[in-house]
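Dock iron/sulfur cluster; give full complex structure.
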Amino acid sequence: MQLETVKFTSSEVAKYPFLKETTAHVQKIGLDVEDFNSPELTKILNRAEERVKAAILDVSVGDRSSDDVKIPDDVEIPSFPVAIIIALATKNSFIKKRYALAEAKQAHSHFQLESKQRLLAIARNFGWNIELNGASQPPSEFILNFADYLRNITHLRDEKWKLINRFLVNGKVYLNHHDVARLLQEEVQRRLEKRLDAKELPPFPRKIMDIAEQLNSLAKEKLGEVEMESFPKVVSQSAFPPCIVALHEAATKGRHLSHVGRFTLTSFLLAVGMPPEKVTEVFKTFSDYNARLTRYQVEHIAGEKGSGTHYTPPSCSTLQTHGVCVNSDGLCRRIRHPLAYYKQKTISAQPTAGRV
Ligand code: SF4
């Protein structure tokens, strides 16, 4: 099949900075990413920092326009590779996964509004074997090679993505605009995660390291103002805060737990170091227990499935709002997060900590 060459404008490259054309644009601008101290780089560096910061705070890449002034393409485009360098410099898996997800989600919001010709061009930029469906039946706009399809549904759990639920003819899957946009989001995220998984890293300039350090502090705050790494290796049930004790007891006795209650208990147990298979077992007395589904949900919260986001329990104020905060004690008055309670209690009671 002969594919026509599609040109992307610089505003399109700014919107989709993961396209192959980004390299050429960065070269054209004459950006020397080795020289992070040059004043010309300040605007690019600021926008790059904003991308990663917004990813940490709300899984977005920030706003390109501030005070009604739109950041020009020659700043927006190179801010993407510089943001990758910053994320790499943090060496923080939470930040890296969150940044990849934020860029992918941002791209998805644009994909949904694109014409089918532009969506086709973007998919082909990724090397997908995809074409428009010229026939009226089935009423699908795109036809995608099933290898490209399979590669991008790995983390999608909805039944609709299973091949058995798809119209498949001669190794081609028929898809609508919404489906292709969602699969492209997966492609963007996977590619970015791969880039951010680089093991051999060069020494980074001081400016980049300073930004990375600040972003690491921000991520720590976001993760519940707790240094997760400092938790003891052995889970100490006697250090659980009252809310978690109540949730744990209800779960092991098979009593009903609200959605927030289940999420809080699961994310708490994972955060303090309980392996996913042990967390899954906590729910096995439930009358609606389904081992495979529970295991998937636990792994999703652990960040091993789906978006890759490692979820942490809600703060005390959120738990109070949902009625999950019960039997609070003296220590509760001094903390704002169940993990902070656990941390303080384990520090003072470490020698007598019992195994769960
Ligand atoms: S104050 Fe926080 S830690 Fe204590 S019981 Fe309530 S939610 Fe749990």
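Observed: The chain has 15 helices and six strands.
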